[in-house]
Design brief:
The chain is an alpha+beta fold. Helix content is 41%, strand content 20%. The protein folds into two domains: 125 residues, no CATH class; 215 residues, no CATH class. It is built from 14 helices and nine strands. A nine-stranded mixed β-sheet has the order 3-2-1-4-5-9-8-7-6, with helices on both faces. The longest helix is centred in the C-terminal third of the chain and has 17 residues. The radius of gyration is 23 Å and the shape is elongated. The termini are close together. 40% of the residues are buried.
Length: 366
């Protein structure tokens, strides 16, 4: 695994002048990855970990001038081209065996809130792709803010290997160009529809109000004193949709109605209705499952990055530091989630990797 990481991430251009190089770039990158796997969340943490584990690290790193300082880690990761680092990350993910074809790939954005300065909005908003079956981050691209997701999503789609997959995106990504890009990549889409596509939204409402060609499936979940009933309705005929042809590949419109009731609680019943369009022609049960899979990006990626990796509290602001450290977090998360021998959460696995070199070698697949 370290050979593969070294080969792929060795393509990154070294941003330093030759006269200032005391440490090899590959050593700095691999120490960063290994330290983050083992619980490091700051540059100081990385240096402290590396000094404590120097003998262990020398088994597969050169370290000609010992362990870099925290200032060196900060400076180098702030200078590395984040687009090149992200491209290498995606190449590394694509090199891994076992990526499931036909799975749901959820695309969504997340702001690193701690990166803001002087009361301004955070300048770091990352759009990520999450493979629901593999439990793996496939890639990310940076945008300046959430409203720029519309331009960031096609860039991410362009560099991902998504053939035969089902791409799910929230309403921000419900754009004709994005639907067309997904079809060009030989994948299918399920796109949430809200008022940002007002005409389409109203046409879908009319379709479900007047059409008789509706298929339905129902599911009921009981969890923590909460009963949630979901009804999925689908239509494959579009008498009530205007400009249907501009949505390339469109075959199905979907309505999900959910009712949430609370046992032993005075909370009122919650109801919600959501609409989607899709290039798939499938059963209502299949759409219900795929749409539910989309939300794994929230609780298995975004929530995990904040709770297990402390990403939302990160104060890294210099240069490309925030987005490059986020890439380190995602490399570590992929490796930790795909180590199956230890049946504990990611946070516990990070602690175990920091304490137990043998377990760390399993995570690194050495």
């Amino acid at each position: 695994m370290t050979n593969k990481l070294t080969t792929i991430f060795g393509q990154i251009d070294d941003p330093r002048r030759n006269v200032t190089k005391l440490h090899k770039l590959n050593d700095i990158l691999l120490i960063g990855i290994i330290a983050v796997i083992s619980g490091a969340e700051t540059w100081n943490n990385i240096e402290e970990y590396a000094r404590a584990k120097e003998d262990f690290l020398r088994k597969f790193l050169e370290l000609p001038n010992g362990i870099p300082s925290h200032d060196t880690f900060n400076r180098v990761f702030s200078l590395i081209d984040h687009q090149q680092f992200e491209a290498c990350f995606i190449e590394w993910v694509n090199s891994l065996a076992g990526l499931v074809k036909g799975q749901v790939i959820a695309i969504d954005g997340k702001t690193i809130r701690g990166a803001k300065t002087h009361g301004k909005k955070s300048p770091i908003h990352l759009v990520s792709a999450w493979a629901s079956e593999n439990n793996m981050v496939l890639g990310q691209v940076k945008t300046n803010e959430k409203s720029n997701e519309i331009t960031a999503i096609p860039k991410l789609l362009e560099i991902l290997a998504i053939e035969e997959s089902i791409i799910t995106i929230d309403a921000m990504g419900c754009q004709t160009d994005i639907a067309s890009k997904i079809i060009d990549k030989q994948a299918d889409y399920i796109l949430a529809v809200k008022q940002n596509q007002k005409q389409l939204y109203e046409d879908i409402q009319d379709a479900f109000r007047f059409s008789k060609a509706v298929q339905t499936a129902t599911s009921v979940d009981l969890d923590h004193g909460r009963i949630e009933t979901r009804e999925c309705h689908i239509i494959n005929r579009f008498e009530h949709l205007q400009d249907m042809k501009k949505w390339r590949g469109l075959k199905t419109i979907i309505k999900i109605e959910s009712t949430r009731e609370f046992k032993n609680s005075k909370k009122p019943t919650e109801k919600a209705t959501r609409f989607y369009i899709s290039s798939l022609q499938a059963e209502a049960e299949d759409f219900m499952k795929a749409i539910r899979s989309h939300w794994s990006i929230e609780n298995k990626l975004h929530w995990m990055l904040d709770v297990a990796f402390g990403e939302d509290a990160s104060r890294k602001r210099k240069g490309n530091a925030a987005q490059n450290f986020s890439t380190l977090n995602k490399i570590a998360l992929n490796l930790l989630k795909n180590e199956k021998t230890l049946k504990i959460g990611v946070k516990g696995r990070r602690l175990k990797a920091g304490w137990d070199d043998n377990y760390l070698l399993k995570v690194l697949n050495l």
